[in-house]
Amino acid sequence: MKSVFIVFFVCLSSILLAQKQSDSQLAYTYYANKEYDKAAEIFLQLYQRTKSSSYLNFHVICLINGKKYNEAETTLKKYLKTDDNNKDFLINLGYIYEQQGKIQKSEEYFNKALKKLQPNNNDIQNLARKFREIREYEWATKTYQKGQTLLNNPKAYILEIGENHMYERNYEAMFQQFVSALEMNPGNLNAITSKLNFARMYDVNNNVDTIIKEQLPLLFKNPQYPPVFDELAIWFALQMGNYPQAFDHGKKLNQKMPGKLDVYLNIAREASRSKQYSTALQAYNEILNAGKENNNFYNTARKEILQCQYAQYETTTDIPELQYKTLATDCQNYLQETGYINTNVDIILLMADVYAYKLNLPDTANTILQKGESIKRLAPNNIYTLKSKRANVLAFMENPWEATILYTQIEKANPNNDIGYEAKLNKARMAYYEGDLLWAKAQFDVLKGSTSKLISNDAIKMSHFINTNYEEDDENQDLSRIAQTEYLIYRQQYMQSLPILDSLINQAQSGIADYAALLKTDILLRQNQPEQARQLLENLSENSEQTYIQAEALFKLAQLKKDAREYRQALALYKKLVSDYSGSIYSIEAGKIYRELEKNIKD
Question: Residues with Cβ < 8 Å from 172, sequence gap 6 or more?
Answer without folding.
Answer: 211, 215
